[in-house]
Amino acid sequence: MIKAGSFFRKTVVAQLEKALLKSDSIFVIGYSGLTSIQMTNLRTSLKQNQSRILVTKNSLMHKALKDSNVDGLDGLISGPTALVFSQQDIATIAKTLIQFAKAHQSLVLKGALSNQQIFDNKAIEALSRLPSKETLRAQVVMALKSPLAGLVFTLKGNLNKLVLVLNQIKDKKK
Length: 174
Fold this sequence. Notes:
The chain is an alpha+beta fold. It is built from 6 helices and 5 strands.
């Protein structure tokens, strides 16, 4: 018969492993000094960006990281630590966490993992200054569209001039 504590730990580790494998980006944050209301506010703001925060014992985090073959985050897990899991654009979540950290000095961004790449605190701050994927896509489309639009207007202007000249010649012959 399995003891309740052992069953609980296995369940938490399985949940962590599932979240680790399912997430596009994982943030490691220190939350020492945050009140429960502030944590609830953080959870709410992350939930609006389709992300979630998970707080559990560090030993269970280490075990889940080891079992799911996620490297690089072990050294960041010490003290009161939480993991933020996201399937969204890393820049969007970085903005949310940086804004919250500026408002609440107790929140510490320890690092992040996205696409097998580790980001430190400074890199996360740099990511938070980037525009979202949608904005970047719109900028690329506009950059591609603008020369084409200029060409269309130039050709249209030349055609308009040709039509005007032909109309003037027609009027002179009448």
